[in-house]
Automatic annotation (TrEMBL):
CDD domains per UniProt: Peptidase_M17
Residue ranges of every copy of the Cytosol aminopeptidase domain listed in the record: 320-327
UniProt feature coiled coil, ranges: none
Cellular component, GO annotation: cytoplasm
Organism: Komagataeibacter intermedius AF2
InterPro entries: Leucine_aapep/pepB (IPR011356), Macro_dom-like (IPR043472), Peptidase_M17_C (IPR000819), Peptidase_M17_N_1 (IPR048816)
Keyword vocabulary terms for this entry: Aminopeptidase, Hydrolase, Manganese, Protease
GO biological process: proteolysis
Gene Ontology molecular function, alphabetical: manganese ion binding; metalloaminopeptidase activity
Family to which this protein belongs: Belongs to the peptidase M17 family.
PROSITE patterns: CYTOSOL_AP
Protein's name according to its UniProt entry: Leucyl aminopeptidase
Amino acid sequence: MNVLDTQDCLVSADDVQDGNVGTVYAIRPSMLDELGTMVGDATVRFARQAGFAARYGQVLLLPGVDGDITTALLGIAEEADGADPFVFGALPDSLPAGSWRVRAPVDVRAGDVALGFCLGAYRMPAFGRDSAPAAPCARLVVDAEGQAAASMARCMNLARSLINTPPNLMGPDDLARAAEAALAPLGAEVSIIRGARLAQEFPTVLHVGAGSNRAPCVVEARWHGSTATDTAPLVSLVGKGVCFDTGGYDLKPPSSMLRMKKDMGGAAIMLALARLIMLRDLPVRLELRLGCVENSVSGHAMRPSDVVKTRAGLTVEIGNTDAEGRLVLCDLLHAACERQPDLLVDAATLTGAARVALGPDVPALFSNHDGTAAAFVASGMACGDPLWRLPLWPGYRRWLGSPVADMNNISSKPMAGAITAALFLEKFVKTDVRWVHIDTYGWNDSSRPGRPEGGESLGLRATYESMLKIFNIEDRMHH
């Protein structure tokens, strides 16, 4: 896995001499009148003639008297628009090679500057294509807070690269081995459940994967922080890892299948979050479960009208083979609840309905606990990783009825698809377990500052910040 080492684009302030460091001034449109005090009146005239208006992500290089470029301007959003680290991702591709320092308004956190810079420096992995040696690049001068942001960026970029990997190179076993490689060196106990044990413990995962010659498996990982006691909060993470989704016998049209390598995005995000928790040694006990599977068409594939018995003992009629993600998750959620976690979070690229409702940048959030949902929404807004709560509306539960099983895997109504999917999952969660379900897109449709086209870790930072708040954890690396 070719994941960019984000430290390559950062340099410690202790390792550079100020005379060799360029300066980027981050400017809001409302600050344009103050620009002269920063760069001088002559430079302001040049900036105006060059059309600099502090538009979001606009970068202008300012030549010095000797022709060297050691100063630049970056347009950023107004303070009222909320936290946005991504805008600093415009810098790596715009600045000349060398060391640079960013001067930003006082309300902009140094960690957000470094995080955005690192995310903008991300490059999609190259799979066999010829590539020239890496050219000298711009590097950001950072303090301790900025350096701490590198671990967050690394984990986000890990999720991106897993999602971006072509599906022939990222099957269920590949995803499981990637999880083991990411977590075992940090002290996690990782097991990969296959075969007869999978059939016994996770029958719905096996049923979804029956049509593929790449056998399904489940990753289970356990870890505890170095200062975590036996009574420390137990955090359980669950991810949908459908490495490619054809839709099964309810086959997707070609246009809908083009991005289905991203259907393991929930697993990639939860894996990356688990690694971040370990890297920062949070005082928690951690469990991770990933359902790694491929939904294919063959003589062995699940069929519409099949009835499968879940780990929880409930039977499910398969109303549509393209609603496989909830089948992957239901056994994992039930297994997680058996351990009585203090917080259970799952992430999945689950429904197109969530995208219709909220678009690609705002994952839908569902929760059985109002205070927990509020913490997630507030934390997401504060860090620029927004989530939006949708209701677990009880009136729609009857839509999941079946005449031959305890429930159907799809709704009888062509409405509220994200809600009915979440209601299906709720059936497998204990009522006394605080549960959050994140229906994420996991993808950038086009490139923007800090957000290149391709896989994206939507919801990762919001979940991490929410954990800190809910369990009153002071993350020394973060703060």
